[in-house]
């Protein structure tokens, strides 16, 4: 039975980073006994709620199953349970993984310096799916007091920053851009790293 005495979970939200999503909420405090939680989801076209592997869990969180498509519109709900008492369900707003995730910065694997260029090898922040359209936006500058930033857009994970001066320190920063149905999703910018070009 739904109980007015058992408070519903608060601060229910979907946290999503690099397309890995987690439903989480604040724990419900009761005088005695330990509260369990049940979480469910439904997708845009269905009326029924489905389990997501979190029925009567003591954890105040539940991983969103990866098989739920990136472009699906999803809703989630969670309630608290204590013995045979249940709280009211708390619903989340609509969530679309691809549009509502935060993309982290790409990983820089290695940088090889020659006199007039830097060869940079990177990895995307998440394992791309077939058909993903990814671009890397590179910003680079000479490490001086008032540097002029230059921009570069590449699709390869191995690319060159060219036309540089020899034996000079250059810094660069990168972010990823994913093409999605509604336009583009821009990822977080990587903290700048600096390298000196070689002497010819």
UniProtKB/TrEMBL annotation:
GO molecular-function term, one example from the UniProt record: cytokine receptor activity
Superkingdom as given in the UniProt entry: Eukaryota
InterPro entries listed in its UniProt record: FN3_dom (IPR003961), FN3_sf (IPR036116), Ig-like_fold (IPR013783), Interferon/interleukin_rcp_dom (IPR015373), Type-II_Cytokine-TF_Rcpt (IPR050650)
Start and end residues of each Fibronectin type-III domain: 102-200
Taxonomic source organism: Copsychus sechellarum
PROSITE patterns documented for this protein: FN3
One GO location term (cellular component): plasma membrane
Protein name: INGR2 protein
């Amino acid at each position: 039975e739904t109980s007015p005495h058992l408070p519903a979970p608060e601060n229910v939200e979907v946290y999503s980073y690099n397309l890995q999503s987690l439903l989480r909420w604040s724990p419900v405090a009761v005088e005695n006994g330990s509260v369990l939680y049940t979480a469910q989801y439904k997708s845009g076209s269905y009326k029924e709620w489905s389990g997501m592997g979190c029925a009567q869990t003591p954890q105040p969180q539940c991983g969103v199953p990866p098989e739920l498509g990136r472009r699906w519109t999803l809703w989630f709900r969670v309630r608290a349970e204590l013995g045979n008492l249940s709280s009211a369900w708390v619903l989340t707003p609509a969530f679309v993984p691809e549009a509502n995730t935060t993309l982290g910065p790409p990983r820089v694997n290695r940088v090889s310096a020659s006199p007039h260029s830097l060869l940079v090898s990177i990895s995307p922040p998440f394992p791309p799916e077939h058909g993903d359209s990814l671009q890397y936006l590179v910003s680079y500058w000479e490490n001086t007091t008032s540097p002029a930033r230059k921009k570069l857009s590449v699709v390869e994970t191995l690319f060159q920053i060219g036309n540089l001066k020899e034996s000079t320190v250059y810094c660069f920063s990168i972010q990823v851009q994913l093409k999605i149905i509604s336009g583009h999703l821009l990822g977080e910018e990587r903290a700048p790293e600096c390298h000196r070009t070689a002497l010819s």
